[in-house]
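Hi there,

I know you've been waiting on this one. I reran it after we fixed the sequence typo, so this is the corrected version. Both the input and the resulting structure follow.
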Amino acid sequence: MLQENLTFYLANRIQPRDWEHRKVGVIGWMMCILYQLGAILLARRNPVAPYGTTSAYLFLLVFEIVFPVAFILTLRRFRQEKAPAFVALPIMDFLSFVSVLLFLMFGTFFSRGPTIVTSGVLNLGAVVAEMVWTIFASIVFFLYRVGRRQEIVV
């Protein structure tokens, strides 16, 4: 939840959303599905990544077709008259800025030292620091959201 909120908040902070603009559209959804298929095909060629079954990949394809259609239909059915206005919040600015700064720093400067191996090699210090930051940011976000008792418009 934190990741989605920070991502959309930062995107809306950098480039305000135009609610009158037409959404992704048919071509956009087709490109999204093709991108996912390409990612699946590339992942299958990676010798380190775990392999999925063919039925799982077919389910993913069906899910990626059915979900956007259901999402678009529900958006049309429950459309509000007026979208809530975006409000810049200092706490969200802080969480977004520090998150981006830390993740750039971890990805750039933490290339040596003890590592852990997943589907790639990761620096152990960067992973631990990222987890600590994520837990801290989640707690701050949660407490702010509960204390404010309002939506955080992203």
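Quick highlight: The chain has five helices and two strands.

Best,
R. S.
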